């Protein structure tokens, strides 16, 4: 039996370090083209995916001095990528506990080896010198946000906190990986591809938006994290799915801005360093007011808004117009912090929509009853398919997951499932045993057992995914999977011990997946 050994990569020429930002690329067109690109891996034999990937890698990553986006260029006081004398693919291991979703590492690697710039992101929540852009992964074609941050003490603190806290929730833009060089960090995050939540949301969507926002903040509080700078624009909505996109404010504190000043709790006008759950609860109440009743404050300057909030504190009264949500708003916006409603209590309010996903959960139980186990290697492979083809299905499964996550900690437990479905104890135990889990299951693991594998694992899709991740010699390397799922490195190495080499050929790859059908 062979041992797992990484394949030594040939020395590559240093990449072009200048950054080219196309002026006419748009997210929607890119999204359509990436789907077409994936399909062409099988249908267009003249242009194999490996050739497309090499072509993407070879594209120059440079600033165009003639670009009209001079404002974006001027935001950076240091070069965005300076990789001279940098060894590629070095990974700094983290001591922090990892999860299935996030690679808890900081990777020292050439940005242009993995990503191509698509366009600048016009809005940024960054409180650290740097900026945000939209990038495309050279291998998968998927879009991501990239926060490019100067290598300062504040940045190092932020990166360390990201690794420590391991935020993982279907309503939060998750961190994919972090690239590092001597002058900056590049934080790669999910691309929400949505629009900021605003005062003008359709009435029929408002209650659902508010419920998701409460669930997000409830999750943060379950991890003893206080956001402290919540406002409507900190969230984006893509159809019915709401995501928190400003995660930096959780770790980097800042003075009130014209955007978030009106959401500050009255007690914080005396001491801006007060960061409590009650501060966030007041902010959620103001979000609810502004979402459903329009802006509370008529002034727009931060200092003027803070003066009005100070008057609310002094008078110990906030005036609320009569509305269908007035009673709930009064519970959020109580002047005394200790008397404000808890977020768990708020989620039970009759104003917020109730979800019952019992039929969907029954289908998941039925879908898995014939399987005995899904190995870690099969889980990792299946997630490649889910992330490439099942974006629309994720929102559906998210609702089922959140219905089961009774304590809003971002994981579901056996006890939570059994409390909701006491007559399905044997099936629920079997579901957890499938993934060799004792009690807790995160959203990524839930997706593995939720998707309809018969529709996902078609011959065409299997060939597409293999071609996307395989080498020119048609091998899927152990190291490729380790780079994606760093937290499962030991388990993946153990799985590859069953093979003669530290790679899978197409037949091995196909067999592992068809065994799940």
TrEMBL record:
Residues 392-427 form the EF-hand domain. SMART domains: S_TKc (SM00220). Residues 100-352 form the Protein kinase domain. It holds the Pfam family Pkinase. GO terms for molecular function: ATP binding; calcium ion binding; protein serine/threonine kinase activity. It comes from the Eukaryota. Transmembrane segments: none annotated. InterPro entries: CDPK_Ser/Thr_kinases, EF_hand_dom, Prot_kinase_dom. PANTHER family: SERINE/THREONINE-PROTEIN KINASE. This is Calcium-dependent protein kinase. The lineage of its organism: Eukaryota, Sar, Alveolata, Ciliophora, Intramacronucleata.
